[in-house]
Batch of 4 targets.
Target 1
Amino acid sequence: MKGKWLGALVMMPFILFFAVFQLAPLVWMVINSFDSQSEGWGLANYRDIMTSPFYLQAIRFSFYITFFSSLYGLLIALIGSYSLRQLGESRLRTLVMSFTNMTSNFTGVPLAFAFVILLGANGCVTLMLRHLGLLEDFSLYSKYGLMLLYTYFQIPLGVLLIYPAFDALKPDWRESAALLGAGTLHYWRFIGLPVLAPALLGTFVILLANALGAYATLYALTNGNFNVIPIRISSLVAGDLYLDPNMASALGIFLVLVMAFITLIHKWMMRRSYTQVNS
């Protein structure tokens, strides 16, 4: 009993920290999200989010970039993880995994600066491709340019999450499938991908959450001129022309609900993955 009280006492600073910096702001956001500057208390802020073309465009752009960057990042990470598995125990695999660990944290202003140097309007790669006649209408600051940026920082995280999932594939399964006359395509269609499916879906959900909440890189690159949900929240809290922290709270709660839903899906997918691996 004494040990439990001692453990609870040691945990008190962490509990207080969590309450002050996580729960208190969330409660404040929930309360203020129902307070509209024009109509007072009610659902006016949420009604504006669901009916305003401007906010609906921000939601649409956020979901579009998030979905496709997560999908492309997942596919590239899957191919990369499989290739690393094929290398076996080697220095190259260790080097690539170490590099992946490092680049998974390469986000924010440094990443935006790197992309401006490479693919900006006067970036070195942009000028070289234009000189070769291979790149005419591409803009880093467009929807497709931002999708490329998002995909880049999704790949390392995808590799780190997918790579351990290949442990679920037993080497003798492939040998048994080959003895039964199954080719590579049949093996991956009926054995490999079904076994990896829960982990792939779980990784995809995490990549969705990772991209949906991204802010620093996008703001540093566009200076807040691209209409997505995190930028809209920032402009309502610290903008130069129009401030409405209550609407920002409503947008924040909307984002929290979406990410909570994504997290629940991820938990369910990972539970299925662990159950299948252990069976």
Note: The two ends are 38 Å apart (CA to CA).
Target 2
Amino acid sequence: MTTTFFLVRHATHDRVGTVLCGRMPGVHLGAFGKAQAERLAARFANENVAGIHTSPLERAVETSEPIADRLGQPLEVCEGIAEIDFGAWSGTSFEALAQDPRWAAWNNARSNNRPPYGETMLEAQARIVGAMEQLRSRYADRSVILVSHSDVIKAALLYHLGMPIDAYGRFDIDPASISTVVVGEWGSKVLRLNEVVAA
């Protein structure tokens, strides 16, 4: 028995690329992000999806809602796929982070560095992989959508690709992208990486 996971990064918000939002509240999709979410909903309209789970953060929930509406399914919040806890860095501009030597250390070796008062990327990996394992038994021989965040999705993909966490920079996970993974007792296979629905 296998389970197909559609790992969806939330759509664009106005702070993408300028601020490390982390788990800060009040980060919502803008007009462009809402349009991306609608395109995702259209993309999934013909998929046989058995469940939709979202990170609790607003930008993920707002991405998930049009998909749930289109598929006529309830939306379930899953703490296991929430954004990495960036601790004291949450809400800091990338310009300011560039002046912090701890930020450089984090990006050079995420396997053994931790954001101040936050969690490691390996801890985030354990969260999402654990959530996927729990959901795998629930959705045997079916498909499920998980709406999460770039680094958390990267962590899951690195695990299923058998790559080290420090290889996180070798591929991109764009806003409103879909990466597809099939998981079974035999192991796992990444079918698609960073699929972006065209406008």
Note: The chain has one domain: 2-196.
Target 3
Amino acid sequence: MSDSTPVAAAPEKLSWYRRLYLRVEALSSSPHAVAAMLLVSVVDGSVFPIPPFALLVPMVLAQPQKWVRYALLGTVASLFGGFIGYYLGDLLRQGAISFLEIDMNMRITRFGIDATLGELLGQNFWALALLCSVLPTPFKVVAIGSGMVGVPLDRFFLAAVLGRSVRFFLVSGVMRYFGPTARKWLRV
């Protein structure tokens, strides 16, 4: 006679990233949710591997009437973090330029291009920074990269304000207006 009782499968071991993500998401229902989202938004612009939307989405679903407030606070905190990331990238750029003795004023006149290396990298990268601030690209990559290639601070600021505002308000607005449908979809 064989034993036909099913054997329970061993629980799946979660990666450190998934465990961290779940902890951050759990903060969204705590009394410290807003403070946690602000902190995560600031650190997201510089080094943190978890986007603030892991907190923002459940917060808006729980209190849809506060979607504008959450979006605005998240945008401002994310911009502050972006400046930290930008200056980290700028420090890396300055260190690399001096260590590798790179001349950013070197003129490039090939393939119809007539500009310095610094102009090519810094003057044109801001459009990519704008696009990547809206897309699900980690913002720290955008911020540090902008500092590393020498995007002028005013152009980085413009790209970051536009991009992060669109991203935070879009995510919050979608969760606010499609919340019941989104809640069903998220719990599948």
Note: DSSP finds eight helices and two strands in the chain.
Target 4
Amino acid sequence: MGSTVVRAVEAAPGLELVAALDAGDDVGAAVTSAGAQVAVDFTVPSATAENVRALVDAGVHAVVGTTGWTSAALDTVRAQLATRPGVGVLIAPNFALGAVLAMTFAARAARYFESVEVVELHHPDKVDAPSGTARHTAQAIAAARAQAGVGPSPDATSTTLDGARGADVDGVRVHAVRLRGLTAHEEILLGNRGEQLTIRHDSFDRESFMPGVVHAVRVVADHPGLTVGLEHVLDLG
């Protein structure tokens, strides 16, 4: 992802790449000496929070594609940003525009269906499960259903093997598949008696994330504080 972002920024009109960092580099010192205004983080969950803290301390806006953030870690970022007014951090579980639209459509449709479940499918080198995209999707669906007064999906399961019904994300079941040959894929399944709506998005190449990353780089400075989800900086009506 890092090298793909480097190429995308270099090719984007009006953007200039001033530094490219790797594991072990001093993030704060590097971005400060390079004069960076925005930094993009695609690392791993064990490193990303420390990177973001260093960027905020340096007064550099951050666009983050690393998943695995906990609520506590996000609260820590919010508290730090409160001491650095004007600095923006945008954390997005998925930068593919189609994936963002799928999440948005699913949240809008969820109130009209009795049942909803999420299936995410990724390559086996992915370190977190379920994916950040699937968690974000399920959270948005759960919030929309709660606001509309929709109850939980029916489920009469009384005996099960551990994990057979997937993870429970705010009451929405999320299933993770890890298979060689996949890149990043998600299905949202919504059902009523006699009908099913399936919303699916497929990323076949990391290039699919680059339009969203470049857009986030361009607009993050206009959104001080913490923004979670690319949908909040797109005009989705």
Note: Residues 118 and 188 are 5 Å apart (CA to CA).
